[in-house]
Amino acid sequence: MTPRPVLVDTDPGLDDALAILLVLAHPGFALRGVTTLAGNIGLERTSANAGALLALAGRHDVPLHAGAAAPSVRAGIDEAAIHGADGLGGVALPAPVPARTGSAARFLAETLRTEAAGTIDLLCLGPLTNLARLLEEAPDAARRIGRVVAMGGTIREPGNVGPMSEFNLAYDPEAADAVLRAGLDLTLVPLDATRRVRASRDTVRDLLALSSPLARKAGEIVEAYFRDAATRESRPLHDPCVPLQLLRPDLFPAETLHLRVDRSDGPEAGRLHVDPTGAPANVALGADGEAALALFVQSLR
């Protein structure tokens, strides 16, 4: 397998952390850098969490750059109740690789300009603020992205922050709108797909039984994911669906939909509307949950 060059934009976050561990563990990915933003929790903490995951994998060589500390124009959404005050449910990690100087958008632009156009894919695990800034500040570099795969939105599933609004897009609807209209090769992996890829307590057992330190740490993180949901039998692996979709798009049946982003205030903010006048995107509308979960565990071996 020829490794796929990728950049990861993230706000870890329990499920972000699982996606990052998958990228670090799987030989199909060549990680070119990580950028962070506030989202699930504040920027200082998300950057420290990303740096700690890199340190766990011994990847001090991977550039880490902090980005947007707030949404484009509105107040953020605090998800500490789900992810814990440290963003990772109290799971112990080593001292983090420190973030380097220079903005996330500038780092993304410089990295994309150093390699042939279309050869680096961007995995967006959080709100789309950093990508929107790249589009504004360096549109020529943004056009060099191969594929953008982003976890966000919902089409038919109920939302998780509003009746039909999902956190990543609701956090910064203006950024989501700018990305959607930019004409990038964009695949959205919404709740319609991610809620079908679910970890159980058996998943925790399987991961903890593996010899890989990354797999065992993933097991601890999934276990932490259950702490605020002690009576639930499974938890959705939202963000890991992004690298899984790149590895096996056949597990995530998709359609091209024309979409617009609701930029109103209130519970509709960030909602995706199917609209023939909207911008086209490849949208995963389901998932083979059992196969995707098996690939997740196998990837962490």
Automatic annotation (TrEMBL):
Q: Per the record, GO CC terms?
A: cytosol
- Single GO BP term: purine nucleoside catabolic process
Q: Which UniProt keywords apply?
A: Glycosidase, Hydrolase
- In its UniProt entry, the species of origin is given as Aureimonas jatrophae
Q: Which SUPFAM superfamilies match?
A: Nucleoside hydrolase
Full protein name: Purine nucleosidase/pyrimidine-specific ribonucleoside hydrolase
> Domain Inosine/uridine-preferring nucleoside hydrolase spans what residues?
6-291
Answer whether the UniProt record assigns the keyword Translocase to this protein.
Answer: no
Region forming the signal peptide: none
User: Which Gene Ontology terms cover its molecular function?
Assistant: purine nucleosidase activity
Matching entries from InterPro entries are given as: Inosine/uridine_hydrolase_dom (IPR001910), IUNH (IPR023186), Ribo_hydro-like (IPR036452)
**Record's Pfam families?**
IU_nuc_hydro
